[in-house]
Amino acid sequence: MTNTDGNWILNNTDLGIAIGELTGEFINEHYDEDNKAQVTVIGYPQTTILKEREEGILEGMANVADGKYEVIANQAAIDANAAQTAMETILIAHPDCKVVTGIGAGAMIGADEALNIQTGGNIPEDMAVITTDVTKQQLEQLADPAYPAKGIIGFEGSDEDTANACASMFALILGDALENQNVFRGVAPITLDNVDAISAGMK
User: Fold this and answer.
1) What predicted TM-score, i.e. pTM, was given to this entire model?
2) pLDDT at residue number 180
3) pLDDT of residue 176
4) What is the pLDDT of residue 143?
5) How many CB atoms lie within 10 A of CB 62?
6) What average pLDDT does range 71-96 have in this prediction?
7) Contact at 8 Å (CB) between 78 and 139?
8) DSSP 147
9) Residue 33 · residue 68 · CB < 8 Å
10) Where do the domains of the chain lie?
11) Which residues, other chains included, contact 170 with Cβ-Cβ below 8 Å and sequence gap of 6+?
């Protein structure tokens, strides 16, 4: 927007790259060129910004784990129910698919449920779901070994972190301290290492 004092915005390509790179790091830990990961990408190309995010995911995975995976399915799903249904269908054709990455909370929650059912909650070490957004349900599944969630690329982190970032943005605008009209939101991984700290800041 041009008629504002400041824009607090998200670079969806960069966010997607971060998701893809975190996914690629997991692939590097558990797979190689002789034992490639079968990867499902849950996107939503009907929306321009989510298409950019999905393209970033593919770029990020290639940056980190090129040659160690194959994308066996690209499926559009924006909410958890659609993602779960899609993942259940994909698993019929590709029962060895163990890595899922995607554009949001719906992709993680839905894929988590489908893989939880498939495995009976006995999640193998080489299974992962990695997406973005930060909801309580995602964080709970990330902390629960009965689900394959392994990582979330968060924006600021918890609800408290986001609120603090919003307040800081207002302070910059009200104090005329903005050097640039556009301020990009930062992104960072949430994993088992820091999920408890992030959960503590959720409202």
Assistant:
1) 0.94
2) 87
3) 82
4) 97
5) 15
6) 97
7) no
8) S
9) yes
10) 12-156
11) none
